[in-house]
């Protein structure tokens, strides 16, 4: 299975790739992709890292699982491939951007355009079996992605972490709040958004304000 990961991450995560748990995880993932339909495509498993080099990372958004429907997942949390209907959470993300920044609702749900600007769109679990949400949880991905969050926290400065929903908020324990900015809100899923826990959080304008204050270019959301 051919995977792509930017050299800057490959260097910093080389020790993680050599850990026994990762070897077990890799064997599991290879077997799953051989025996079942899984998402995203093998080459896109590390797309979040490939599009967002370590040294250019300035925002981290944490999701939980890849989309498990056909042609949806592209390796970036909340993102779908060009031409694919937008899932409910992504619709609510775009609606909040409309309200917060006055930007028109986009045609494409492909968030590679964010990742290419330094937004690490990190799912806690990087693979999933088709039509079986959570099927690759508890196999080692979470150990790996927690290590990624710790690495960013330790080696970077002034990163904006956007933690949406209960699962993501737990990752705040991995982040040094004296060095970074942590913004939390409800999840953009309809269940949370319809209870008033998502809309109006203004995370996108707030993030850009923090970045500009720190001398970094704002994200073109």
Automatic annotation (TrEMBL):
Coiled-coil-forming residues are none
Q: Name one GO cellular component term.
A: cytoplasm
Q: Which Gene3D superfamilies match?
A: Uracil-DNA glycosylase-like domain
Q: Where are the transmembrane segments?
A: none
Residues of the active site: 65 (proton acceptor)
Concerning InterPro entries, the annotation shows: UDG_fam1, Ura-DNA_Glyclase_AS, Uracil-DNA_glycosylase-like, Uracil-DNA_glycosylase-like_sf
**Where does the UniProt entry say this protein principally localizes?**
cytoplasm
Q: What is this protein called?
A: Uracil-DNA glycosylase
| Phylogenetic lineage | Bacteria, Pseudomonadati, Bacteroidota, Flavobacteriia, Flavobacteriales
Write the gene name. ung
């Amino acid at each position: 299975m051919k995977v792509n990961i930017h050299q800057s991450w490959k260097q910093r995560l080389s020790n993680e790739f050599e850990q026994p748990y990762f070897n077990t995880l890799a064997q599991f993932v290879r077997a799953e992709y051989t025996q079942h339909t899984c998402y995203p495509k093998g080459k896109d498993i590390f797309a979040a890292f490939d599009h967002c080099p370590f040294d250019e990372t300035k925002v981290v958004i944490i999701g939980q699982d890849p989309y498990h429907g056909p042609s949806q997942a592209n390796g970036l949390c909340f993102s779908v491939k060009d031409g694919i209907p937008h899932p409910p959470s992504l619709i609510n993300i775009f609606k909040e951007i409309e309200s917060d920044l006055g930007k028109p609702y986009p045609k494409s749900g492909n968030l590679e355009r964010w990742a290419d600007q330094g937004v690490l769109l990190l799912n806690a679990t990087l693979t999933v079996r088709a039509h079986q949400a959570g099927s690759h949880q508890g196999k080692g991905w979470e150990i790996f992605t927690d290590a990624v969050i710790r690495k960013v926290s330790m080696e970077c400065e002034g990163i904006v972490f956007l933690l949406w929903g209960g699962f993501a908020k737990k990752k705040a324990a991995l982040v040094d709040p004296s060095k970074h900015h942590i913004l939390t809100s409800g999840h953009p899923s309809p269940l949370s958004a319809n209870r008033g826990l998502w809309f109006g959080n203004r995370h996108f304008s707030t993030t850009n304000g923090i970045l500009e204050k720190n001398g970094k270019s704002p994200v073109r959301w």
